[in-house]
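Our consortium's second objective concerns turning raw sequence data into structural hypotheses that experimental partners can test. To show how far this objective has progressed, the report includes one record in full. It was chosen at random from the queue rather than selected for favorable results. The single chain below, 286 residues long, was entered without modification.
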Amino acid sequence: MSGNPRPVFRFAPSPNGELHLGHALSALTCFSQAQEAGGRFLLRIEDIDIARSRPEYVQGIFDDLTWLGLSWEEPVVYQSQRFDVYREAAGRLRAMGLLYPCFATRSEIEAAATGVSDPDGAPLYPGLWRGRPEAEVRRHQAEGTPYALRLDMAAAVRIAAGRLESALLTFREDGQEVEAAPERWGDAVIVRKDTPTSYHLAVVVDDAWQGVTHVTRGRDLFAATGLHRLLQVLLGLPEPAYRHHPLVMDEEGQKLSKSARHTSLRALREQGMTREQVISRIGLAG
């Protein structure tokens, strides 16, 4: 018997809408990889967005994945039950001097933006609150003004470079070393105003805690992986192997959205589409 641990794969949807064909591609690809590697397949519910998450969407995830023929290990992890863990991780980054409070509103950021966008298409944060006097920060906190915690990207990259003894931060994509380039995110939000974490922080903390060795997800998250790799280095977390598959597009060539009801797996199932037809439609047949 080999002493090597079994590889661990995961599918981690957010219950803020119905799953669509793009989710089916990610889930089926990940499940197939786990089977081929003799690995474990985990399901994680990424429900940090309490305002948008719904119990019926969670049940819909279970129903859709079961219909696709997938099974997963129990218990299922819910991120909403792990806020204390994310607070601790954020506290470590803050103790390193890498997080700072930002009280700027979205309109203020847009007004001060330079025309450069981050990989999600949002205005690149112009550093409005980086380096503000401590007295000003404390005054806003005392007044109860909502704030996010942002990563001082320049300082974070310097520390990561020192730990890696290399100025080039990379991650493994399909067995190749790819430049991470987290700088393209600017001073990214690590703790949101309304939630004690962000997607970026929670996902790297949970992947490490669950022992995830392989992350398979859509190409739309390729740029985010650079930021995730930076956080892994700063927090001393292991590096999974990554694979970003092509996206499933609609008839107009746009990425599928949870708001497009006609593309949801539930709607397609109710229309009589079979599991085999779904597999064929997303290009996994044969």
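The partners drew two points from this record. The longest strand covers residues 40-45. The CA atoms of residues 32 and 65 lie 13 Å apart. Both points have been shared with the crystallography group to help prioritize constructs.
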